[in-house]
Amino acid sequence: MRVAVILAIAIATVAGIETYTQKPSPAIQLRDGTVYFAQPPRLVEAATTYNEVYVWGATYYFTLSLPENAGEPLQQVTINQHQGVDNIRFDLKNSFAFEGTRSDKGQKFKLQDGASNQKSRTVTLRFEPPISPGQTITIGLKPKRNPAVAGVYLFGVTAFPAGEKSHGQFLGFGRLHFYGSRFNSIFFPYGW
C-alpha cells in the first residue's frame, strides 16, 4: 500500500499534476455580519529608535505578520498605551507603514485615516487599500517626544479585518523601556 502511494505521487509529479493545493482559509462571519480573521495576525516586534527619556525625533516600530490563511485582509490597527506614567502623544501626520521589517523595508502602505484619543491613550490607523494576507508589515509611529518619566511602557496592539462590521483581535503587548539620560541624572536627579 505504501509503495502504491509513493508511486502515485511520483507519477503525478512527473506528469505535472498538482497533488496538493493549499486554498486560503475563508474568514469567519457571524450571522449578524461580524467578520473575524480565520487566523489572526501576530505581533512580531516592538522597538524604538531612541530609548532615552525626553528625546525628540524617535520612531516606535510595531511589526505584524499577517498569515496566508488569515481569510481577510488587514484593514485597521489600534495601538493602546496600557502602562507608563507619561501619556505619550503621537504625530500621526508623520507616522507611516511599510511592507517588511525595520531592517528590510519594502513598499510603503497608504494610511487613510489616523486618529488619536488622548483620554483612552489609543491610536487608530486605517489602511487604504487593506493589506493582503501573507505579508509582514511595520508601522512607524512618531511620538511628539519620548516620555519624560523612565520606565516600561506597554502598548496593546489590536488588528481588525476588512469589512463594515469587523471584530478586533488583540495581538499582544509591545514593550518599550525608556531610560533616564546621563544629562538628566546629573542635573535633575529627581526627574523633571
TrEMBL record:
Pfam families: DUF2808. This is DUF2808 domain-containing protein. The lineage of its organism: Bacteria, Bacillati, Cyanobacteriota, Cyanophyceae, Nostocales.
